Structure to design on (667 residues):
């Protein structure tokens, strides 16, 4: 012991004061390396690995008793996670909590070891610089230097700290890389345990395991560790926000029926499904289809949805309408003139889009002279705009608008040219610029193209007379957001220009389009891997309503109330009018985003409609085997996407439901 202290004293004397933290760092690194070596030797010795394999098999065959017996008295990470899965089921909340419980032990000291590898050489260099400064002070001192070797000796002693720092870093680096491999292997084994428990809980012909649904209602995915091991660079993810609600634990049957969007796992990929829920009016016999849709998906999905909706007498669909679009009315003379002017401005913008509706190489046809002619000309390229134009055929006094290449005109209350006051003509010039050009080929269409998917507005024919837009206008929605103090503008045309940064358009849309362009180029360079990864991630996100609800929650309760609940009031009000009419349609459909369906279903039930069986349609199918991806690459890709998904959930800091309590539909 005295010899050790003497050696340390010599090192400090030769290396200077910087040698003290270097010695402390070396002792701390040695202690951490010894502790981690013992931990991983115990966790990954042959007997422990065999026990983990037995646990995996017990969970796969749903042998809960054997799984608990294997974990008895074992507090290793695999035993802890397996015990929780056996006791509480394999829901997302349980699996995430189990992984988080063992994460600190698995990743212990990894950050400290990584810091040591970086800090030790820097401290050594600092000691060397200080030593060299002192050596050169000898040359510039007042006392004459008789032996130059004294300066050389001083520099040599100063370099001792750099050498010592590098030795510490090198001796720490190799164990750190070894431990890092153990960390990765541990998380992969934990993911295998969770996947086995999920697979067992959804085996065909067997009842669902505790805290898990059967395959028809399964929505949540296998867990992967939400964080990276020490030293990994954080990943920034742009969350897709949608109004949907889900729970991580099992729901009672009545709540499970409220599911409107779900994700199904296959051996070689993922499938996103949306529901078409059926309601029946017991008094009138009218059938009401509540169809949840995604705005981008497979072309076959929209074809199947179109066939189903083609059997309906009336289809009420979601569309935040431009100001002035739709039926024109007003309670006072001034209100009628204002509404008619807004409608004329909308039609003028539609006329400005018309040149873009002519096919390449086709001669420009004679401009339409009626709203019906304008709608027919628009139908081929933008059926939803054609629908809105057709619904805006009459002014507030019931007279048809007249259109030309230069202007849109209403003849006023008297239906004749000229006049004063309420009878005065209203004329709106067609703008030279295409005021609504590219509306149907906007950001979502670009996203669909980048991912190799189809866009809803391009695939569904909205121009049928039976289809009616049933939603708020953009100005009304913008006004409601501003009235609630929500600092988001949707780009409405209100007088004050909105109350906050635009959610769509402007710099945000420019950046998004740039990112989509980079995706397309990156996909070509990666041989399709980037596009596949993003499609898988899209299915993971849209199929996990808890993640999406977390995104909505970050915008506040008022935003959710307006975007979901207040907009839902419009189609329900229109539905009530149809049910009270004469004759009553035999089949009516409400086509809205899947996130709207739980609230809409509750409103239909409140009207006395009785729910029947649901139909599920495959919206996005990602089959990696069909795309020719090798088996090993398929597994790697699916695991990477799951990790990214769970990282997003972790970063959003969404609370898990309390154990043993069914989650509410808004949890």
């Amino acid at each position: 012991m005295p010899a050790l202290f003497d050696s340390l004293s010599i090192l400090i004397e030769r290396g200077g004061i910087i040698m003290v933290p270097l010695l402390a760092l070396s002792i701390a690194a040695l202690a951490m390396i010894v502790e981690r070596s013992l931990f991983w030797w115990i966790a990954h010795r042959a007997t422990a690995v065999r026990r983990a394999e037995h646990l995996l098999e017990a969970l796969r065959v749903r042998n809960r008793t054997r799984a608990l017996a294997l974990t008895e008295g074992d507090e290793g990470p695999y035993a802890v996670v397996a015990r929780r899965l056996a006791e509480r089921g394999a829901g997302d909340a349980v699996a995430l909590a189990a992984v988080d419980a063992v994460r600190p032990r698995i990743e212990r000291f990894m950050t400290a070891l990584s810091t040591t590898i970086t800090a030790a050489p820097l401290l050594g260099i600092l000691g060397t610089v200080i030593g060299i400064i002192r050596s050169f002070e000898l040359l510039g001192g007042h006392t004459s230097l008789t032996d130059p070797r004294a300066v050389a000796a001083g520099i040599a002693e100063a370099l001792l700290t750099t050498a010592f720092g590098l030795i510490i870093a090198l001796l720490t680096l190799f164990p750190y890389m070894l431990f890092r491999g153990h960390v990765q292997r541990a998380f992969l084994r934990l993911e295998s345990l969770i996947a086995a428990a999920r697979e067992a809980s959804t085996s065909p012909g067997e009842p669902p395991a505790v805290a898990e649904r059967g395959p028809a209602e399964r929505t949540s995915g296998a867990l992967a560790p939400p964080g990276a091991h020490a030293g990994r660079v954080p990943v920034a993810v742009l969350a897709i926000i949608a109004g949907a609600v889900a729970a991580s634990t099992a729901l009672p049957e009545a709540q499970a029926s409220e599911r409107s969007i779900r994700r199904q796992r296959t051996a070689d990929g993922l499938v996103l499904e949306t529901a078409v829920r059926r309601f029946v009016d017991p008094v009138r016999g009218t059938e009401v289809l509540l169809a949840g849709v995604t705005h981008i998906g497979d072309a076959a999905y929209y074809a199947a949805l179109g066939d189903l909706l083609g059997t309906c007498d009336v289809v009420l669909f979601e569309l935040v309408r431009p100001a002035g679009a739709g039926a024109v009315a007003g309670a006072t003379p001034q209100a009628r003139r204002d509404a008619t002017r807004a409608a004329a401005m909308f039609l003028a913008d539609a006329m400005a889009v018309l040149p873009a509706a002519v096919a390449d190489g086709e001669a420009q046809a004679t401009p339409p002279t009626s709203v019906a002619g304008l709608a027919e000309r628009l139908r081929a390229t933008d059926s939803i705009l054609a629908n809105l134009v057709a619904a805006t055929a009459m002014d507030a006094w019931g007279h048809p608008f007249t259109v030309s290449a230069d202007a849109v005109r209403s003849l006023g209350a008297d239906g004749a040219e000229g006049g004063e006051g309420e009878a005065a003509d209203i004329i709106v010039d067609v703008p030279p610029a295409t005021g609504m050009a590219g509306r149907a080929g906007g950001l979502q269409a670009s996203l669909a193209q980048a991912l190799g998917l189809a866009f809803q507005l391009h695939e569904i024919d909205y121009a049928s007379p039976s289809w009616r837009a049933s939603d708020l206008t953009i100005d009304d929605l913008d006004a409601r957001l501003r009235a609630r103090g929500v600092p988001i503008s949707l780009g409405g045309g209100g007088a004050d220009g909105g109350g906050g940064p635009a959610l769509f358009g402007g710099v945000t849309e420019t950046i998004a389009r740039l990112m989509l362009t980079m995706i397309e180029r990156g996909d070509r360079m990666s041989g399709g891997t980037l596009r596949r990864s993003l499609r898988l991630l899209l299915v993971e996100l849209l199929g996990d309503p808890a993640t999406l609800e977390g995104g909505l929650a970050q915008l506040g309760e008022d935003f959710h109330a307006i975007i979901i609940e207040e907009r839902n009031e419009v189609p329900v009000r229109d539905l009530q009018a149809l049910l009270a009419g004469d004759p009553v349609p035999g089949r009516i459909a409400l086509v809205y985003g899947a996130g709207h369906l739980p609230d809409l279903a509750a409103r239909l039930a409140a009207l006395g409609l009785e729910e029947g069986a649901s139909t599920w349609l495959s919206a996005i199918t990602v089959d990696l085997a069909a795309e020719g991806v090798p088996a090993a690459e398929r597994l790697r890709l699916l695991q990477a996407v799951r990790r990214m998904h769970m990282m997003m959930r972790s970063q959003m800091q969404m609370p898990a439901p309390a154990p043993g309590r069914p989650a509410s539909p808004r949890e």
